[in-house]
Write a structure and sequence with these properties.
Helix content: 55-70%
Order of helices and strands: EHHEHHEHHEE
Radius of gyration: 14 Å
Structural class: mainly alpha
Distance between the termini: 13 Å
Strand content: 5-15%
Number of helices: 6
CATH architecture: 3-Layer(aba) Sandwich
Shape: globular
CATH topology: Rossmann fold
Number of strands: 5
Oligomer: single chain
Strand order of the largest sheet: 1-4-5
CATH superfamily: 5'-nuclease
Largest sheet: 3 strands, parallel
Number of domains: 1
Length: 125
Amino acid sequence: MILDTNALSAYLDRTPEAVEIVSEAREIAIPVIVAGEFACGIAQSRHREAYERSLQRMLDRCTVLDIGIETARHYAAIRLELKGAGKPIPANDLWIAALSRQHAIPVMSRDSHFDFVGGLRRQTW
């Protein structure tokens, strides 16, 4: 399962439903985009050191998904599909959706706009 930024936050904040879903997943993946978004949030937090440790522990036990040329092709296809349907989504979420389709892994997120992406499964809590 791919964790979106809000899913990673919920898990690290020990939201019971999120913890249960992540604990039951066979594999957890974090897109490099999510790591960047989370790092930006951490940099602005007064609990920075604790969150940095939590993030590093999570990254150590997960697969970190990088962006490559195949991801870029999925990104372009999804962006054009959504543009044609009049349903654009935020750029970072386009990259996360592209990784989800590329690797055929569902996304855990509260963001319902992922539902507009064909071939993508979203898990919420």
